[in-house]
Predict the 3D structure of the following.
Amino acid sequence: MAGETVITVVGNLTADPELRYTQNGLPVANFTIASTPRNFDRASGEWKDGEALFLRASVWREFAEHVAGSLTKGMRVIAQGRLRQRSYEDREGQKRTSIELEIDEIGPSLRYATAQVTRAAGGQGGGGGQGQFGGGAQPRQQVSEEPWSTPGSQTSADAWSTPGSFGDDTPF
């Protein structure tokens, strides 16, 4: 990864992620993130929107299926990835260059929303969990046995996993 340009973008999805499959059956999801800066104008005493940045993004493999099943148009997301420059010829024969974001991590922003995270069944936990984010998405099959649980423990008895059961004291 040396020399790659890694950035983090916060913005809204302009449309639902488009899930496609390559000729080899490899899933890929493409979408656009719109990031609009807001600045305070001291002269008028108001917040003003700056010029929006529209950044095309893509995710691959099982990650693409998770994104397509979890994120929808208008959702505010936080995405981190590597910028890729691609050169091509358009239909008129003009040389063009596009800059796209190859996503490493993405999830909903919780600034103005809440999310229910559900671990996807059969996920390859490679570099951190491959979870799924709620917010309108139908949950996939739940994993019946959590790999980090204590053998013989009952999840419902776990004060950390039971909503509303927390207090000022730690459960240990």
Q: What stands out?
A: Confidence is low (pLDDT under 50) at residues 126-156. The helical segments are 61-70. The chain has one helix and ten strands.
